[in-house]
Amino acid sequence: MMRFLAVLFALVFWVGGSAVHAQSIRVQASVSATEIGTEEAVTFTVSVSGSDGSGLSAPPAPETRGLSLLQSTPGTQRNVSIVNGQVSQSFGFTWSFRPVAEGSARIEPVTITVNGTRYTTEAIDINVVAQSQRPARRPARRDPFSALRPPVNDEPPPPPSDRDIFIRAAPRSASVWRNEQLVVEYKLYFREGIQLRQSRLTDSWDAEGFWREELDVETRPVPQTVIENGLRYNVITLKRAAVFPARAGDLSIDPLRIESEAMLPFGQRDPFQSLFSTRSRYTPVDLASPEVNVTARPLPENAPASFQGAVGRFNMDLRVDKTALEVGSSLEIRATISGTGNLATMAAPTLDAPSVFDVYDPQTSSTLDRSGTRLAGSRTFSWVLIPRSNGTFELPPVRFSWFDPNAGVYRETESDPLTISVTGTSSIPDAVATTTNGLPVDDVAPIFISSSSWTPAGSTPLHHRPLTYFLILFPLLVWGGMTGWRTYVDRLAANPELVRGKRAHPLSRKHLKQASLLLEGADTAAFFEELDRAVMGFIGNRLNVAERGMTRERLASTLATSGAPEALVNDLNVFLDQCDLGRYAPANMHRTDKERALDTASALIPDLDEALSV
Amino acid sequence: MRMIALIVILLVFGPTEVPAQAQAETQAQAQDAHTVAASIQSFDDGTALVREGRFREAIDAFERSRAAGFESEALWYNMGVAHYRLDHLGQAILHFERALRLAPDDERVLHSLSIAERRRVDTFSKLPEPFWKRGHTWLLGIMGPWAWFAAGVVLLWTAIALAVMRAIPAGWNMDTRQIQRWCLMLAAPLLVFSLWSSVSPPVPPAAIVLAQTTSITEQPDAAGAVVEPIHEGTRVHLLTDAGDWLLVRLSNSVEGWLPATDVGRI
Predict the structure, then answer these.
(1) Shortest CB distance from A426 goes to which of B53, B84, B88?
(2) ipTM over 0.95
């Protein structure tokens, strides 16, 4: 605001002039007015700045349409100005034209040669209206004492039109990224000869939805002369601000409004009236720039993890004041981010220090350069770290990322890792207060000095141990086995037939085994005795009959009753005859006879078992 | 009779196996004694380092003590204190909880755990437990699952022994069926209760968040929707272990998945 007022202050005391500081040759064409009455004249001026006048000659009068030239020889002016010790000069060639009729008129381009170089101006269109539509002209006759007489009426001087004086807002772009820097310049345009005073800002300038930073403008500006639509204007910069959209969407910046008093030079060419007039010739004017509409685009979604909203162009420098220190002492890490962008709202990068360090919130300082046409500078973040234990620690790189609005991409930089060596030891802080149990109020209790109870770590849950299931299943299996065995025994005790049937095979196998042992011996009678017991014992047990003393006839009838085939009974009788022969006449039996008898017995038993089972 | 003979054989020849078993047990005991001694030595070293303020070295010593395969309340507690001094909040709470598992009523451990938990970022409400779960917890407070199981096994074996004695022809002539029936009726619920408590304890296994910040997600996937962001030191109940991911539940009954590397099991 102060800067803005300083500009206006300078504006009040600025006396209109045409001094132009030019560094290079510039040729411009302008007219006194682009709208004139049918009875008015228009002045056409070709100005040449940046030339020392050598090699400069008056150009021919321009071709016109709807205008007539009043004099063929141009009027010439030479303006010399000294600004900051630098001398510059400009030359002007002026022609006057009178309109031929109402309607549109045109002054064609003029070509002028300066130092051998040809320059051509732009054509200028002029609108010629009926004289009645123009403001009343003042008396043509000049009375040197008219200013001393009371005014005939209090008609105020005509106010300047919007084309005579206006404010133009010039954003560099109408569409920016969120948080991107956008510079908005407010420039005051006023026609040559207009004088201003009592200028002030009438309303607070606001830019809702933006973070804004004021940029420096000249406190004593030298107006720049520009040609706009064929008219010559003086231009000064009133305000320059860098704004940063805080959110995406359509945003607007309020108009810049000023109040002032302006004096128009037109019709005030009488020097006596200027000197002796007691009536103010200044007219109040209210000026406002147009509203600036800006579209803020959201940032792309592929932001890196370290991105915290910085938009612009930056670089980072990381420094640490020491890399070796004692436990409990401090070290400082300083990260300086410099560049152009939203420095003022920039968040600190993440310092991922090992937890052995106490890390305090970073101190932040900013250095902003507002002198240029963009906000630039640096922002410094300082962390204080205090190690609580000794050792050598590596601080991981500090990463900083930002969005580059020109390239439309995210960029990231990272510092080199830092190695910090900490020596010494720390002591456990003494508790200042204790509870009723003697424990510190705001601290953990003291450590155990010794431990007497050690147990194996990581005990297996009950349901994961095989022993668990063994302890449950084993007695149940024993119980089941005992119950089954008991049932079996009871069944056998209640059924002798079943017992003999069960014993048939084991007993016959036992006798056959005994006969096999006797096969090699000389006791042939005993051998056949065992074979007879094996077969007859099997039959007795199988049929639950007493085999001792059983006659052949009874044996045959019993077997026939039990379903044994007749052929099998005959084979059995033959076998029993051979056994009798062997028992009572063993001398006639040879080894081959005994082997044959053993095979016969071994075959008879399963045949009998099968036959008796049917 | 064969079984009786077998028992006799075992009784006769059994003692010949005892020296070998005893020798192996003796060796195991000697090995255990050696590792316990190593654990105690490392524990003492770590304790001395804590008193000197050399917390990182103390933690290394405690880790050596733990690696020997034995644990104690003092070991876990002192580790917790060392971590607390180094501002390892999650590790401190985890080790205090481990100490509390071995000594649930120790005032020193309870006090230090409460101090550490004050610095925890997350505070979640705690839902009331149903009555049956409180009863379950109360019963296990009287005796652990192993003790209930041992009681059930004794009753079961008693019942079976009575049945076997009655089954042997030369056994007792006493009518012990009533005693046997009562033993079975008591053994069955005790065994079921102990096994159920082991499979599904009233307080499920818990873990402490060690990462400074992590998120419970809807799926076991880093790209899954975030259910709840949580911070270091928060206690979670473990419901399912899926390797790299754990299904957990917060005290306010919010459930979701956490990376297994972000937590430490109590």
Answers:
(1) B53
(2) no
